[in-house]
Design a protein that fits this description.
It contains 7 helices and no strands. By secondary structure, it is mostly helical. The protein has a single domain, classed as TerB-like. Helix 1 runs antiparallel to helix 2, helix 1 packs parallel to helix 4 and helix 4 runs antiparallel to helix 5. This is TerB family tellurite resistance protein. InterPro entries: TerB-like.
């Protein structure tokens, strides 16, 4: 299966909108990720204005699942406020990705809201893998 970057970005948009609005810092991260994956500003704005329901993510590789989870948690922290609705949404997506929902609390302490701060992704990945359902 080819990983669909629009579908990944759509999940991030759904997370950003889970507290009823997309904050400016969240929108900037969404734009940064979208542009890095070859999407135009118009395409990204259209996706933000009209998010689609989240598609089936179970066919992703384990690497893709981890990246998805990492970006979700990074986006959740992006606006400096973490709402319960965002945590619940991340936990729901984590479960759809095949993780136990406790993975969100475990790895969120190691994921920074600022994409320029480099986290030890190997260490985070090992922690996340412990929460993968068999």
């Amino acid at each position: 299966m080819i990983f669909d970057k629009k579908a990944e970005l759509n999940v991030l948009i759904n997370l950003a909108a889970s507290d009823s609005q997309v904050a400016e810092r969240e929108a900037k991260l969404i734009h940064m990720i979208g542009k890095a994956n070859g999407l135009s500003v118009d395409e990204i704005n259209q996706m933000i204005a009209n998010p689609k329901p989240i598609s089936n993510v179970t066919a992703l590789t384990t690497d893709q699942k981890f990246e998805h989870l990492y970006y979700l948690i990074q986006l959740m922290k992006m606006d400096g406020q973490v709402f319960r609705s965002e945590i619940v949404f991340c936990e729901q997506i984590a479960e759809k990705l095949g993780y136990k929902k406790g993975v969100v609390a475990e790895i969120s302490q190691h994921v920074y809201s600022d994409p320029s701060i480099t986290a030890d992704r190997d260490m985070i990945r090992k922690k996340a893998d412990k929460y993968m359902r068999a």
